[in-house]
Write a structure and sequence with these properties.
222 residues; 3-stranded antiparallel sheet; 9 helices
């Protein structure tokens, strides 16, 4: 029987960083659901699929296969057998993912794929609706968040460290906008699962958050 850790939370909460570290510590597989949506976005865009044509969208999704494999400790994303690991990191892929994730056909297809992976391996999966829609029976669900101010500060420092221009007020406004959109969208809105552990990382380091989640996982696996 596999063990799943579902990690949800708003934008900028550090979910992917924490999820990767937890997976590494527990020797689990980290499932990057965001990359899967990016791959699906690239796929539908390459076909020129009319997203408003339900029949065409359903048919396209039916023929799509997005899989994850680990090679030499690195995660690779495959779209219908083609390695798109580099392609999904492009800015355009991110925009396409945001666009296609609003469609039920896309979410149902990827949810099914994610559930298949989780049924056969110990996984850590992060996103917006993992504990509520993708893995509702996960033994451990975490809702990871931080204040808007702290999430904006982290993003600001991240950009500055990369030598990029950054406006703290603009970043804060963008985070607040994304929070509202994520929690008010019609399909799979962001919300804390009733049995999820609420974890506010505003005053915690990433290492402390990882330590807490690993402790909870080991406690529930014993």
């Amino acid at each position: 029987m596999s063990f799943q850790i579902a990690l949800d939370g708003p934008a900028g909460a550090g979910k992917s960083t924490v999820a990767k570290a937890v997976a590494s510590e527990l020797h689990f597989i980290y499932i990057d659901t965001g990359a899967m949506y990016r791959a699906m976005g690239l796929y539908l865009d390459s076909l020129g699929t009319d997203l408003e044509d339900q029949a065409a969208l359903d048919a396209a999704c039916e023929k799509a296969s997005v899989t994850i494999a680990h090679q030499n400790g690195a995660q690779h994303i495959y779209l219908n057998g083609e390695d798109v690991t580099t392609a999904v990191r492009a800015e355009t892929a991110g925009m396409l993912a945001s666009k296609v994730s609003a469609y039920g056909s896309v979410r149902r297809k990827l949810t099914s794929m994610q559930q298949e992976i989780a049924a056969s391996a110990d996984v850590v999966m992060d996103g917006r609706d993992i504990g509520t829609a993708v893995l509702p029976e996960a033994p451990l669900k975490i809702f990871l968040t931080a204040s808007v101010e702290e999430r904006a500060r982290r993003r600001y420092l991240e950009l500055k460290n990369k030598g990029q221009e950054a406006d703290l007020a603009a970043i804060s406004a963008d985070i607040e906008k994304r929070d509202y959109q994520d929690s008010h969208r019609e399909i799979a809105p962001l919300r804390q699962a009733e049995d999820a552990v609420y974890l506010d990382s505003s005053n915690l380091s990433a290492e402390q958050v990882v330590e807490k989640i690993v402790f909870l996982a080991r406690e529930r696996m014993s």
